[in-house]
Amino acid sequence: METMYTIDHKEVDFDIVVGLGFLHNGMSHIAEYSLFHRFKTTLISGSQCLLSLYLFDLTMKSKRQTTSESEEEEDERDMLNELPEGVILHIMKFMDAKHAVQTCVLSKRWKELWKHLTTLSFSHEFHRTVISYNKFVPRVLSNRNSSLSLQNLDIWAFDLQSPNLLDFVTQYALLHSVEHLAVTINIVSHHFFSLIFSSLTLTYLKLCITSLAPTLELPCFLRLPSLKSLHLDNVCFTASVNGCADPFSSCGSLDSLVIENCFLHNDAKVLWVSNSNLCSLTLGNTILKGPDKIQLSTPNLRFLSVVCDPVPQLSLRSFSFLEQVYIDVQIKTYFHTYYVEKSYSALVSLLQVIADYVKILILSSSTIEILNGLLTSDSKITQLPCFAQLKSLKLKGRSSSKMSEKEVSRIVEYLLPKSSVAKVVVTNC
Questions:
Q1: Burial degree of 86 (CB within 10 A; 0-12, 13-18, 19+)
Q2: Is the pLDDT of residue 25 over 80?
Q3: Where in this chain does the record put each F-box domain (predicted)?
Q4: Domains of the chain: which residue ranges?
Q5: What is the DSSP string of 46-63?
């Protein structure tokens, strides 16, 4: 019987107990029956999943107390402890490290089980103070089975002590061949910086700086040969030559890139995203602090998402493999006229650049409002391109204010040629 668990999407398919709510009414047979029926439920945390299994174990023991002694001897089982170690560790990897360690009190078998985890997630939210959290993290790492690799690590580090903590954690992770690393921090030390960008094993890296100003200046070139997925939030790019920042060209395995709230250092004016292997690119929100211009040299790009305010000035070369583009932009008209006109121009320019390549175009409600405003004005109407290669146009409206048929028709009329066979999908969410 196949069992699947997931935390990221907040839904989980697994064979477990739906009758736990009736436990106190003596209806344990419902729990037993439901074990063999698949259902979908909302999962709050990994510990809830484990708790459900544990309660089911207690339920079965409660039911067995009503059987005869001979039947009890024959059927006596510990349902939870009969699960293979690999299944239990799979469940535990979705738990915060604090909850995972707390399972050591369940039984002798569980005392050492958490030490075999190869996925650890540390969040300060489950600790009363930052001091207790900063003490807890190194203790866990120091007491786990050091002969095992640490494949996945997700850590939050705050307060003035965080640089020392993060240096220790990062060094431990790299020594244990970490592959997936997610770091959220407000203070960054130079030692941490040098450790991260010397890794030969990292395939996924997420760096999120929570301070108001970016405290992490990336090197001119990111030399991470195994890196496949990179997510950068509130970092600073350093210019190399001619006022251009080109940090990604040396990441030969990079497949997916997400950039949010990022800056250019000093007088740099252009961010150059140059990578022949890159398949997916997301340009996130950069409220009034992003680079003036982003140059893309990514010939194998297939998926592009632009979720920005203001709209960046994008310059793209040939994109014969471009399949899908998602545009979700907002232009705050109460800002200076120069800013508004510049954003309008950047949006129109973006549409013109992708028009000859994209197969699927998805526009958010705010983007649709902007385009409708342009189409009803006297300026820039003739500049909107026609998407001759488009196979699907998806318009995502707001549930609170549904788009009128007139608005939809106006967008379709200008973006699609009359001979187009593209499928038009309108959703309200």
A1: exposed
A2: no
A3: 77-129
A4: 11-75, 322-429
A5: HHHHHHHHHHHHHHHHHH
Q: What share of the chain is helix, strand, coil (3-state, %, to 5)?
A: 35, 20, 45
pLDDT in tens, 88-103: 899 899 999 999 999 8
Task: Work out the number of other CB atoms within 10 angstroms of the CB of residue 198.
Answer: 11
Q: Which of 146, 147, 127 is nearest to 137 (CA)?
A: 127
387: nearest Cα among 361, 355, 414: 355
Phi, psi (deg, nearest 5) at residue 105: -90, -5
Nearest C-alpha neighbor of 98 from the set 128, 134, 123: 123
Burial group, residue 34, by CB count within 10 angstroms (0-12, 13-18, 19+): middle
Instruction: Please state which of the ranges 220-224, 341-345, 388-392 shows the lowest mean pLDDT.
Output: 341-345
pTM score above 0.90: no
Spatial neighbors of 337 by CB under 8 A, at least 6 apart, are: none
Beta-carbon neighbour count of residue 410 at 10 Å?
A: 17
What distances in angstroms separate CA 411 from CA 352, 384, 394, 417, 420, one per listed residue?
15, 10, 11, 11, 14
Virtual torsion, Cα 216, 221, 222, 228, nearest 10 deg: 130
Integer angstrom CA distances of residue 188 from 125, 175, 299, 404: 20, 20, 34, 50
- Identify the three-state secondary structure at position 112: coil
At 404, which amino acid appears? S
Contacts of range 292-301, beta carbons closer than 8 Å, 24 or more positions apart: 293/269, 294/270, 295/244, 295/270, 295/271, 297/272, 297/273, 298/273, 298/274, 300/276
The upper half-sphere exposure of residue 74, i.e. CA atoms within 13 Å in the direction of its Cβ, equals 5
Locus of tokens 């941490």? 192
